[in-house]
Design goal:
The chain is of the alpha/beta class. Helices cover 56% and strands 18% of the residues. The strands form 3 sheets. Strands 2-1-4-5-6-7 form a 6-stranded antiparallel sheet, covered by helices on one side. A 6-stranded mixed sheet has the order 8-12-13-3-14-15. Strands 9-10-11 form a 3-stranded antiparallel sheet. Helix 6 packs antiparallel against helix 14 and helix 8 crosses helix 12. The longest helix has 47 residues. The radius of gyration is 39 Å and the shape is flat.
């Protein structure tokens, strides 16, 4: 549920903070007052594309922020984890988005920076828009099939089918690749075998490659390192080196100590220095000896490193890509001996998958047929309430000649608005007003299975009025029993049914134009005046009386 919305510098709106409750919220105002500002803010928060022209003139930055509450947050938290974003805090989701004229746009979800694609994925989960262009989707058979599957609750059946379909597609592609591949000549096979042998010369695992590179580095730098270590040895134990000087120092300190016992401590320290220097000399010499590599080891390391660098350069630059290429080369060579046999084996596998696909597709079909009858019957009943005296909706399922990602059947919604007219596809017969009402009838039915918590209807009541308009409002109010519903409307019959009512107004003076959005559901007289205005005249007594009647 959307609880809080803050908008700054969007189009003609300077700044507004709104709070919402569950149920049915209506948004009204004069034509051109700027009702689209609220929809624009929600669109931005749902991950819609944006442009900097949306920023209010004279401002550098536009921002929108919303707080949503999910009583049961397991599903949204699972999505957030999949997207790598922080979980909700006690069911609260905070979404923020800004646009700047000269800076990068910013998106934050629960305080963490996010991408537009992450915001869009999240938007698909929590909000659903139904506007003037929405009915056009109903003309597409794919959309019709999605609506039918949602009603028939085919999620599990579709998932089972799609797993098989993807596996079948993969095997079909492998067969096509084999059939299109040419038999390799002897020179090519010889070259591929040589490449495989080169790879087999190396121990292709992370630890071995790391050790190889380390040994090569040591060998490459051995002469320089040995020279430096030898200089250190000379400094410590060479002629006139540190050891000779410490011997002389120790001899003198011993003589001094024999004369004056108070110098015993200093003499002891001199002996310690001599012992430490001797130990240091031996360790440096040991290190120097460690860089004296066996000639065979040097030759082997250089040879392996040369091979590794050559293969790495050829095949992707990493151990992972080299291993993948090795497998591909081995498969390529291996298949040359029996391409036809490999094709036959894959075709047999595909045939078995097709049998399984056919069974899953048939299960889908039976469930769709059952759902289509019920959905068509319920939709027709609602259409009668929405002003169609003799309307009829039917859903036809037609078998395709091949498997697709959604099964082996297409779906077509057939509609007849009047008695005596043949059932025809929606795009052949329905006007925009008729299609909007068909979509509303379907959405009303599907509301019980649709998990999207927030639904926005933008003038779906266009081209209807009177009693039909009232029925449209009642249907949206019914949807609001299980969803939070927002409706932008020009119909007083619809506006009067809202549990919350927001009015959009455009304010102009000599210097600027601004849009304001204000709640009026707690202001009975102001709301009465708005409904009367929508009826024709807020100062007319008959309009005011009618408004009182609508508000009950």
């Amino acid at each position: 549920m959307l609880q809080y919305l803050k908008i700054e510098n969007l189009a003609l709106l300077k700044s507004i903070t709104l709070e919402f409750d569950k149920g049915f919220s209506v948004v009204t105002g004069e034509t051109g007052a700027g009702k689209s500002v609220l929809l624009g803010a929600l669109n931005l928060l749902s991950g819609a594309r944006s442009n900097k022209e949306m920023i209010r003139q004279g401002s550098d930055r536009l921002s929108v922020e919303a707080s949503l509450f999910f009583p049961e947050s397991e599903e949204v938290n699972a999505l957030l984890e999949e997207l790598g974003l922080p979980n909700c805090d006690e069911g609260s989701l905070i979404v923020f988005r800004s646009l700047d004229t000269s800076k990068m746009s910013k998106i934050r979800i629960n305080g963490s920076l996010a991408t537009l694609s992450q915001l869009k994925r999240l938007g698909e989960y929590w909000i659903d828009f139904h506007g003037p262009g929405e009915p056009q989707k109903l003309f597409k058979e794919q959309c019709q099939l999605e609506l039918l599957d949602a009603f028939a609750q085919n999620d599990a059946l579709l998932e089972n089918y799609r797993v098989l379909f993807k596996e079948w597609q993969k095997e079909r592609k492998a067969i096509e690749n084999l059939k299109s591949s040419e038999q390799l000549d002897d020179d090519t096979i010889r070259f591929l075998n040589n490449e495989i042998k080169k790879m087999e010369q190396l121990d292709l695992n992370e630890a071995a490659i790391t050790e190889l590179e380390s040994n090569f580095t040591k060998i490459s730098q051995s002469q320089e390192l040995q020279g430096m270590l030898q200089m250190c040895v000379d400094i410590v134990s060479g002629e006139t080196g540190l050891m000779d000087r410490l011997n002389a120092l120790n001899h003198q300190m011993s003589n001094l100590s024999s004369i004056d016992s108070s110098l015993d401590e200093l003499s002891g320290r001199a002996k310690s220095l001599q012992i430490e220097a001797d130990d240091l000399s031996q360790e440096i010499q040991s290190l120097s000896d460690g860089f004296d590599f066996d000639p065979e080891m040097i030759e082997s390391t250089i040879s392996q490193m040369t091979t590794w660098q050559e293969l790495k350069r050829k095949y992707g630059g990493s151990l992972e890509s080299l291993l993948e290429e090795k497998t591909a080369l081995e498969n390529k060579v291996g298949m040359q001996g029996d391409i036809e046999g490999s094709i036959q084996e894959l075709e047999l596998k595909c045939a078995k998958l097709e049998e399984k696909l056919a069974k899953e597709s048939e299960r889908l079909y039976k469930n769709r047929v059952k759902g289509a009858k019920t959905l068509a019957k319920q939709a027709t009943e609602i259409l009668l309430k929405l002003g169609f005296k003799k309307a009829q909706l039917d859903i036809s399922l037609l078998e395709s000649d091949h498997f697709t990602e959604t099964g082996k059947h297409n779906c077509c919604f057939l509609f007849s608005p009047n008695v005596g007219q043949d059932l025809l596809p929606l795009n052949k017969i329905a006007s925009s007003g008729e299609t909007a009402r068909v979509m509303l009838a379907l959405k009303t039915i599907l509301a019980d299975v649709d998990k999207t918590p927030v639904m926005v209807f933008d003038e779906v009541d266009a081209n209807v009025g009177g009693e039909v308009g009232r029925t449209v409002g009642k249907e949206m109010a019914r949807i609001s029993q299980s969803h939070q519903v927002f409706c932008v409307t020009h119909l007083p019959q619809v506006a009067s049914l809202g549990s919350q009512h927001f009015i959009v107004d455009k304010i102009q003076d000599d210097s600027e134009t601004q849009v304001s959005i204000a709640p009026i559901h707690s202001e009975p007289q102001q709301r009465l005046g708005e409904i009367a205005r929508m009826l024709g005249d807020r100062n007319s007594q008959s309009a005011l009386d009618h408004a009182k009647e609508l508000l009950g």
